[in-house]
Amino acid sequence: MPLKTAILSAIKLSYAWAMSLWLAPALLSGGTAIAQQSVQLLDSACTPSVNAPVTDPGTNRTWVLDYPCDLQPGEDVTFILNLHGGGSNTAYQHAYFPAWELKEKYRLVVATPYSPVARWRPEDDQYLQNIVTTVTDAVGKENIRAFWLAGHSQGGLTSRRLICTEFFENKVDGFASLSGGRLGGAPQRSPNAGRPRQADAPPPAAPATAATPPAAPAAPAPEPACNFSHIYAIGEYEIVSLPDTSALATRYNCSARVRRDDVVDTDAGKTYDSRSQNPGTREWGLLPRPGTAEVYEYPDCDDGRVIADVVRLDKGHTEGFEPNIMDTIVSMMVRASGGKIQGN
């Protein structure tokens, strides 16, 4: 081989070898020229589906952590504390509001805790605070772009109770109430809302007598006074009608309510209350099925906050959220302003 040809061949081989070293990590990291090791949070190996539980050392109670499997050091994320309702558990909430399915797309860290008595009480507050502190320390407060409370039913009422407490007030940027009560003006509840009495249930207790009158209903709790975004999602059959105004929207100088495009789902949600189908009622919830959701938003709110209502048509209290309306709700959560934890 002539000397000139040999030199050119050597140059080409050296270039190809160098390019292979440069491109290999790019292919492994989804196109980034310099590969970085993905972060593993709290020794919880990331999986595409349900992760193993994490133990809170302060209370020795577990919770489920989900985060992007390709999470990079220093990357900003949105953190969601996802609370189940009364009589429920982590597995149901994980399927009912499956934000974890969108963790890669929207860069989410989702903590789904569990109350051993299937109902949130003030005794559980320290456990929930420990989870928030643990996630904040693991991710780094400078990397938590926004922190949201999301709660179904009694989990929503618990989120409402917690949101302006000393621990949470300077941390929570938003509250997603999932059939857990609307802030800024509550709708009238459907007359038949509530868990239906089952055919195989024990006989009801004797009615109250004149000597033991029924207890008066509790007065509604005052609305939280601190500042945050608010998304209210409700099944059509749970309420009489949705209010067309919001005191929160007025507080934040939002523009008049607008109706966004309806969200159509051809796939069903992942769960339902199988214990309450003998008989089931449309108000409480039937089997999961496809559907359409109406989305209303009060745009242009102060400081980039989001105030929105979602009405899931032909749904009750317990059918799990369908994928497209999940995407819509989570996209509003990550679009809203944040930064409270970063500012502490």
Describe the structure.
There is one protein chain. The chain has 344 residues and is an alpha/beta fold. It has one domain: Rossmann fold, CATH 3.40.50. Helix content is 25%, strand content 18%. It has 9 helices and 11 strands. Strands 1, 2, 3, 4, 5, 6, 7, 8, 9, 10 and 11 form an 11-stranded mixed β-sheet that branches. It starts with a helix and ends with a helix.
Outline of the structure:
It contains nine helices and eleven strands.
The secondary structure category is alpha/beta
CATH T-level fold name: Rossmann fold
Instruction: Describe the largest sheet.
Output: 11 strands, mixed
- Just give the CATH class: Alpha Beta
Number of strands: 11
Task: Based on the coordinates given, report the CATH architecture.
Answer: 3-Layer(aba) Sandwich
Distance between the termini: 70 Å
Radius of gyration (CA) equals 24 Å
How would you state the average pLDDT, rounded? 88
Beta content: 15-25%
Please give the domain count.
Answer: 1
Order of helices and strands: HEEEHHEHEHHEEHEEEEHH
Low-confidence regions: 1-35
Number of helices in the DSSP assignment: 9
Overall spatial form: globular
Q: What is the helical fraction, as a range of percent?
A: 25-40%
